[in-house]
Amino acid sequence: MRTLQEIENDYLKKEVDEFRIGDTVKVHLRVVEGEKERVQIFQGVVIRRRRGRTGASFTVRKVSYGVGVERIFPIHSPRVEKVEVVRSGRVRRSRLYFLRKLRGKAARLKDA
Amino acid sequence: MSRAILGKKIGMTRIYDETGNCVPVTAIEAGPCVVVQKRTPAKHRYSAIQLGFEEVPARKLNKPRAGVFERRDLKPMRHLREVRMPPAEVDAYKVGEQVTVSIFQDTEFVDITGTSKGRGFQGVVRRYGFQGSTKTRGTHENRRHPGSIGNNEFPGRVFKGHRLPGHMGNRRVTTQNIKVVRVDEDRNVLLVRGAVPGHPGGLVLIRKAIKKS
After folding, report:
1. Strands B203-208 and B189-193: what pairing?
2. Phi-psi region of B161 (alpha: psi -120 to 50; beta: other; left: phi over 0)
3. Pick from A16, A68, B123, B183: most CB atoms within 10 A?
4. Where in chain B is the domain with CATH 4.10.960.10?
5. Where in chain B is the domain with CATH 3.30.160.810?
6. If one looks up domain B119-168 in CATH, what number appears?
7. Does the beta carbon of B16 lie under 8 angstroms from any beta carbon of chain A?
8. Per-residue pLDDT tens listing for chain A (112 residues)
9. How far is A52 from chain B (nearest CA, A)?
10. What is the pLDDT of residues B59-117, one digit of tens each?
């Protein structure tokens, strides 16, 4: 009997950029605008990483013009071109939801 | 041209298409099947082909069933199902001919028949989506009851076919117009969009969509 794993393997990225929870990352995103396609960058802190195969994803949080913005990216989506680590933060938990309550200076993470 | 095949549901997952959209899919191990018998109007009063699926050792079958294959010099198979089709199409088949997923190469939509997951004896709320009553405001002991079913003088009886509690699931279900996402000939796997009736491992019959061709 065929397994789901071997079918999913066709849709996984060969290499996934390495990053950890608490890292500040730049996510290079392919965006299609009308006819054209360009790369958009979303920069923020990785506050969650969900494991899985084709369903694996991570959440990036940033504060834009004083408003907290979180985006969830599927790790294996072809639209996520690259994940670049800007800075690594030292954190002790896997879900950084506490950052949502913090503003400004309090919302910083110590460097790893 | 072939229009049907037997398969086994593998399970569901999600994949990404060329544009990066996430698509929910069900993987089905479809075929290879073998044409075991032909039903013709002259002999059987209807026309169909009988497909066999999943080879098994002969000892797993009882003797009458094993004989079906032995007589035709075919490998023993676990499943046998008939597919009705017009006589002209039946003629195009030969007994012993293989049917593989490649028949769906240019097919956009299929109908899939399977046995739905058994839900056991279910009440009317779960089985038919009745609303039930409010949890509070004086409701006493009948929050998930069907309510009145036959009235008094008129009609004074319960109509036939009235929806009542009973067994749910574990029956033959056909889902029509399921989109084909990918046909993997090397692996004999068919990926279709969305859900398909039955458990993983359950036998399904896949036919070209009758309403879309």
Report:
1. unpaired
2. left
3. B183
4. 119-168
5. 4-118+172-208
6. 4.10.960.10
7. yes
8. 678 888 888 888 888 888 999 999 999 998 887 888 888 999 999 999 999 888 899 999 999 998 999 999 999 988 888 899 999 989 999 999 999 999 888 888 888 7
9. 11
10. 888 888 888 888 888 889 999 999 988 888 888 888 888 888 888 888 889 999 999 99
Contact flag A30-B11 (C-beta cutoff 8 Å):
no
Q: Please report the sign of the dihedral spanned by the C-alpha atoms of residue A37, residue A43, residue A44, residue A45.
A: positive
C-alpha atoms less than 13 angstroms from C-alpha of A87 in its C-beta half-sphere:
11
- Decide if B27 and A7 are in contact by the 8 Å CB cutoff: yes
Task: Please state, in angstroms and rounded to a whole number, the distance separating the CA atoms of residues A17 and B132.
Answer: 51
Q: Is the complex ipTM more than 0.90?
A: no
3-state secondary structure of B139: coil
> Given CB atoms, is B54 within the 8 Å cutoff of chain A?
no
A33 touching chain B per CB within 8 A = no
CB pair distance less than 8 Å for B14 and A78: no
Task: Check CB contact of B126 with chain A, cutoff 8 Å.
Answer: no
Give domain B4-118+172-208's CATH number out of 2.40.50.320, 3.30.160.810, 3.20.20.80, 2.170.190.11.
3.30.160.810
